């Protein structure tokens, strides 16, 4: 079966638009080849970060790469999202009481269990038996029970870590003074929340990001695109939960999404400005998530 046939198979499985074929073949298959080549040149598994703001397509890219690794390259690989390492709702509730009320909302640095993430990456990189990778239930806003976690039973050659803040760097303290939106202006007047988030990004996340062998960026045209993309995600989540006859209490409406994404605006805009110069591979998107330009690093 040709790589085109395999791409078609992936498109059918994921119910993607036919336009995804050209993107996959012209941009993402060459990326996969580079990752495979690079993985063969090192003893430890290749650790790849995939960065993109909410709704940019990083989860789909991760799934596509995993599909190609297995079905085209015959490479053992594992993918996971930084989202699955969110602190539990109870832990975030404790943070919201002890540090700042805004920390009840998942997503920003400081709301992930970074020690757990680091330990999981180490266990996968130095594989010595099955590794349990947690899963987070966004509809319930809490971690799934361990019985629902993913079990990795063989040593991976490539590890993909995707997330909206993967690879992001902290800002200088003076850059935190002026609020970037209404959330910061009215709910974080004393800058406690954004200072805590920035400090956690600097102290807890950078050691993990420095372990990345390669960083891939899906670069949005601007923060303005995030609300529409995030609304699409929530619509799909609602449809999935309805099909499973689950609890819709954690699924957001448009007004809730508008406020929710303000939690991410500062780091997203900072990353859009400075991360392209540090990323190994940059795919610049338009408002329709089509790739308008691509810069691929060497293997």
Write a brief caption for the model.
The protein is an alpha/beta fold and 299 residues long. It is built from ten helices and ten strands.
The CATH architecture designation is 3-Layer(aba) Sandwich
Beta fraction = 5-15%
**How far apart lie the N and C ends?**
25 Å
In CATH, what is the class?
Answer: Alpha Beta
Total of domains: 1
Low-pLDDT parts are none
> What's the rounded overall pLDDT mean?
93
Shape type: globular
Strands ordered across the widest β-sheet: 2-7-1-8-9-10
Radius of gyration: 19 Å
Helix fraction, binned, reads: 40-55%
Our count of helices gives 10
User: What's the main sheet like?
Assistant: 6 strands, mixed
Structural class estimated from helices and strands? alpha/beta
- What is the strand tally? 10
Question: Could you characterize the architecture of this molecule?
Answer:
The chain has helices at residues 3-14, 20-39, 58-71, 89-98, 114-125, 182-187, 192-209, 226-243, 254-260, 265-274, and strands spanning 46-52, 77-81, 131-133, 136-137, 142-143, 150-152, 158-163, 214-219, 281-285, 291-295. With 299 residues, the protein is of the alpha/beta class. It has one domain (3-285): P-loop containing nucleotide triphosphate hydrolases (Rossmann fold, 3-Layer(aba) Sandwich). The strands form 3 sheets. The chain has a 6-stranded mixed β-sheet, sandwiched between helices. It has a two-stranded antiparallel ribbon with strand order 3-6. Strands 4-5 form a two-stranded antiparallel ribbon. α1 packs across α3 (58-71) and α2 (20-39) packs across α3.
